[in-house]
Amino acid sequence: MLQKPKMMEGESLIQTELKLAQDLKQCCDAEGKEINPFMSAPILNEIGLIYRKRSPDKLSLIRSAVLLNAAVARQPSNAKFQNDVKEICSYLLQVTGAHKTNTDLVKISKQVKVKIQQMREEAEEKLGLLTEIPYEITDDHFKKLAEQKIKIVEGLQNMITEKYKSIMEYVSAECKNIMGTIPCRFNVTGMGSLARGEITPYSDFEHIILLEEGIQHKSDYKKILEYFRWFSVIFHFIIINLQETIVPSVAIPSLNNSTNPEHNWFYDFYTTRGVSFDGFLVHACKFPLGRTQTTNKKPWTTELIKPVSEMLQYLDFEVALKNGYHLNEVLKETCFVFGNKRVYSEFVQGRCKVQNNDNEAHQRQRMKQLKEDLDNFDVMKMNNLSSASSCNIKRMIYRSISLFISTLGHLYAVATYSTFKTIRQLRKRGAIKDEVARGLLFALAVVCEVRLKVYMAKRRQDDTVDKGETLREWVPDMRTQVVTVVGERSMVECLTTAWILQNFLRDKESSRGFLQDRQLTLVSSFYIKPIVLYTLNLHNRVIEEWLKCKKQSYPNEYLEAFACFRAGEAFSQLGKFKEALEVWKGLENQLKQNPFLNARYLRQKSYCLFNLRKWKDVIEHTNKAKLEIASWNILNYDFKQALYSTAGAAKHRSGLFQEALSEFRDFFKCPLDKTLPRNRQNIAMSLLYVGRCLLELGKADSAIHKGREVLELSKQMKSITVMDSYRLLSRCYFSKQKYKKSLEYCEKELESRNETIDLINNDPQGFVDVERRIEECKEKLGYYGLEPKSVVSPDNGTHNIHNGNEMLQYLDFEVALKNGYHLNEVLKETCFVFGDRKLYDDFEHGRESYIAASVCLSLLLAIDLYSIKFSSSFNVVRQLQKEDRINGETASGLLFALAVACEVRLKVYMAKGRQDDCLDKGETFRDWVSDIRMQVIKIVGERSMVECINVANQLQMFLRMLKSNQCQLLNTKLIIDSSFYLKLQAISLLGCNDRVIKEWNDRHNKQLCVNDYLKSSVCFCVATAYMSSGKYQALQIFLSFENHSVQLNRDFNVAGMILKALCLLNLGKCKEAVEQTNRAKRKMASMDFNDSSFKPALYNIVGIAKYELGLFHEALTEFRNYFKCPFDKTIPRNHMYMIQSLIYVGICLMELGKLDSAMHKPRQALELSKQIKSFFILKSYILLSECYFRKEKYKRSLEYAEKALGCVNEIRDCSIGKHFNIEGIEAVITACKKKLGYDNTACA
């Protein structure tokens, strides 16, 4: 028996399925494609077993079979999976009441697989006989080669059709034998491409089952229907076991539910899509069971197992409208597959009667359908492929001919359904001439060849021709790849015929006339070729054909104007802009007669002027063009947005950056169809120019945002604008002095240019520019000092081995500046390892002389200050004490600090087992809450670290003092003071707030501090400790130093005022906090104080205070000022302020009802919090949850609320965890679940 799916006790099948679907989602990427099919196989098998449990429901059995076979396809050697497939097949035969319940359906499927493979191999062999027709041949030679192609393709299609029918006949006979005695005469009838003789070895089997007339009146009619339903399910199982049915085709509700976007995500790329039944989607379902599931738009079921008369009702106009998925059109093209031929003949005769009795309503509906098809499969849509990343050849090429030849046959009431035979019947009747028939047959042969070649090359039913994954593959126009499938000449002749046929039908549709009025002719194909060639991106061919056409007279002015216009466009695409303008010069009057053609001309003219670098002319032309287009009242925004984009680019080149941004603002107001590749390309270019304008205006951060948008869009489209986005981003980061990031994007840009150098017209200046920026970045980063520079030797050679005197040159101050990475400092500390000891002694002696001469230029190391010979740091300290440069206490302090520093480094390296200087926060939210300084202290203990930092602080203060008074350098002694005040500063630097407060309260009254500056500094440290601990007694401490800190140091004065404002804010005294920040601003202005670290803090505090007072607009103004401050964003503290400000901006926007804008801010904060591992991630979750709740998107709100609750629970025992209102988060979760209608079980 089948194994039961794993299921928790009390859990429903639906809940289990949803859980498994989520597990499967974890195995897929963002597009729903499996990352590792081997890992997803067990999950698919489990879901399949769930659908087995829902049997004997027919659809559930079919879905189960598809899922179980999908698991086998991913793990072919898994015996358990294979056994599950065999057992469900056996179970099916038992529930059907079949005559032969012991039949092995898997074995039958294997036999069918062999037959299909033989058909494919034969088709591939015959397809290899087709050769490309050269473009440059005579018309007579072309006709001969065209006839050969028609003969081969038609013969190939007939062979595939007969083989395919015989396979389906074989399966039908097997199903009949399994089910036993048939209750009535019946027929399996094929439809679609099988009936038209255009089927491929990988096509679906679209079919119906016809029953003999009168059977519906029998008393056991329901049993008879049930017999054929199970007949269809067995047939379906045999086809499913071929493992060519993709999972989405059976519409599993948890994976591919078209009515619920949240559950429509799975993309089965792994299963080879081939011979299968039509899908379960409501617009498909062309198989006997039909449409069993309904939707709001399709509320009727449709079964395709019916007696002849009832099946004919689907051809009725009203019934066709009710079904709404062109079933009546599909039923007009059928073929016999298996069963009773008399039943099939009755159906064909009845259908002819229905078609002969067409009324006006039928004709109107037919014309309406024709108009819809002409819009959907317009051959001129090939132009949209210019910026596309893929092409659907079935929609774009195959249907542009095949569909309309069938339409032509229907309108002339041709009885045959083979498309090739339809053309010959039309010629036989005299409806079309021999030349037209040859053109249509050749076009049909080409589109069939294209589809067959693409399917056979991919070994699956896949209509997409796609660009590759490398930038080099993104460069060629998508149309070029389509043309290469069959060659230029074949594709041009095919699409020329398609263009004429579609326009012929378009004329008839618009006039609502009958086709007998006028014959289809190809007489104008010579003049249409330039138009079609442009559509295929063959610009040189366009000009050649246009020059030939100029010698002839055009049939009408419109065609002449259109061909000339396309010739001008071809010149412009080839970079011959002056020639393009010359071609268009005399056309303006003709073009103005057609508003759409004229609009295209105005757009293209602006493009040519732009490329001729006539910026003023572009601006004048686009202004006139906008007015002209507005006067026509054209609602097509493609023309307007192109003009806005070109005008914006021209104004950018003219240095009018603000005006350019205004043009691009108008561009983005146009309601464009963003699914069209051309529009997406225009959007990418416009974003690029917006970024360039912002960069020129000094808004590098905003420019970076645009550059990233362009980069993302370019990668989606597989467009070469990815190269331009790299350039913009490198320039932005360079302007922000982030040279490493700039260098990264420069190198990507250069790599892109080199990759495509032989494919596109790469601007030589572009190479020069990017290489210059690379050099500048490396220079700023000091990369050129990393390797020893070559020194010219006496014999004019170069070498990297230096003698002693040459090496001493690196100690020179100017050379040190030039090298830029302190090589001079490194060379002052050396030791002998191996070689000639005398050479080393000579170098060391020369170095001591050099240091003695330049001692006043070095201020960082004690070895430089006193010309100490020893390079060992411990020995340096002892030598300084020996020479009475420092006293014993100072020497002890320095030695202890040095020992602690070495201990820290050794412990970190040894613990990590490698040279790695970084101490990092962990990956859990609990780790993110802690201060990183606490981890540093744990390495050696609090006391050791405090003493070490105290010594380091005093040593650096001493050196800083010497720097300001170089002339007295050698007369000053370093004295390490062990006083309480200096130690308290060290404790504060380490973030030990409780220790600072305790030491202050215990000892500050017992020790006298003679240095007022030091006392103010320590008071400030204590106040900060009180603040960080949430103890707002800090206000009292300010009183002790605020009065005299003004005279001592303006930094303390301003910092004290800011800290006082922050204290007031935390005490809830928001008005006083605003007043305090205003005083601080005035104080800073009076002192002409512009420190970039204080202003952001002020704006941040006053913004929060105004938010708390309900002044949301004013708060937003303060935060706007905050983000204008040029503070250093690499400092973690500034990162924290930035995240906090983003969150408060989001809260203000939310309170003002701007929910979409509000949600953007916490997302930014969330991303930044993850980067720096900040606890503000929790506040981001809370704000996002609140925003989604207000937007009534309760599922998303619940998701973020649960994430927030998880974070709070993780840190509940930490001090910071007590500040968060867990009851509020739980209330949101409860409210969301209530809104979503979750029951108590689900909530639990």
UniProtKB/TrEMBL annotation:
It comes from the Eukaryota. It comes from Clavelina lepadiformis (Light-bulb sea squirt). It holds the Pfam family DUF294. Residues 143-222 form the Protein-PII uridylyltransferase N-terminal domain. Signal peptide: none annotated. Gene3D superfamilies: Tetratricopeptide repeat domain (1.25.40.10). This is Protein-PII uridylyltransferase N-terminal domain-containing protein.
